[in-house]
Amino acid sequence: MDLIDTHQHLILRGHLGYAWTTGVPALQGDFTPDDYARLVAGQGVIGTVFMETGVDDADYQAEARLIAGLVGKGGMLGQIASCRPETDAGFDAWLDECRGLSVVGFRRLLHVVDDAMSQSEGFRRNIRKIGAGGYTYDMVFHARQLGIAEALARACPDQVLVLDHCGNPDVAGNGFDAWYAGMQAMAALPHVWLKFSGITVNCAPGTASAPLLQRYTDAMLEVFGPARMIWGGDWPVVDLAVGLPDWIDMSRAMLGGLSVDEQAMIGHQNARRVYGLAG
Question: Domains along the chain?
Answer without folding.
Answer: 3-275 (3.20.20.140)
